[in-house]
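debug: dumping io for the single-chain case to check the tokenizer round-trip. Nothing else runs in this session.
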Amino acid sequence: MKQFLPCVLFLLLAVAAQAQVQVQLSFKRLQYIAHEPVIATMTITNLAGRDIELRDDNEQHWFGFAGTSVTRKIDLEKRYPVADLGVFHVRANVYFADLNKFFYAQGKVFEVTTARPIWQQTVGLPSGDGERTYSLMTNRFADHTSLYVRVEDKANGLVYSTYSLGRLISFDQPHEEIDRDNQLHVMQCSAPRIWTYSVVGLDGKLVKHASYAQNRGNPRLRRMADGSVTVSGGLIDLPAAPPGAPGRAPVPKLSDRPVDLPPQE
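debug: decoded output
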């Protein structure tokens, strides 16, 4: 099903009559999983020769600039109902209040689809007043496979988060453990001799994200007698290089994490 999202994102004020701007809209990829963040990047170039003041459509001040470009990232999943499966057409625009005129970016298209479930576990909240369901899913893109995690309250129909934990290769299956606080620990092989370790909380936030290299054996998750989960084997790696960088495995950078996630502990 095709759906259209007419995004009126910014209001431009105090603009001379001869002012012009260029508006560009882009997406990092063309396919997304239902409920994961859909990040649109909007770039506005000021060709007016004087300052332009930008405000959101709710009158919140954003930025004032002249003779340059500014970029803002917008999570469409938080603003529009893009969790439904289908093809979405997006067209962003800015509005000149003084000229009563819209300037439009070229329309873009993206698809929302499902991923293949491979594991699921429901756990209780420590407070005893509800449950959370963790799900691991895989999705095949043109050049790689990604491992996704979803945290939801199935009883109330609430999805707290869905996002990629990074690449997954078929050399080894992901390993999962639940610790004494009912947090999810995942170890996945993201490249030859490289594993990615993630900890996901009951609120859906990414608590920890690190990479391990093979060192006299593959890293594995171990649940201890006290209920804690540790990593056995392997050698923890420093922050990874960008995916596809020469000489490094294509594991994700921390800056590639989903929006609104906490910093690495």
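debug: round-trip ok. The CA atoms of residues 50 and 78 lie 33 Å apart.
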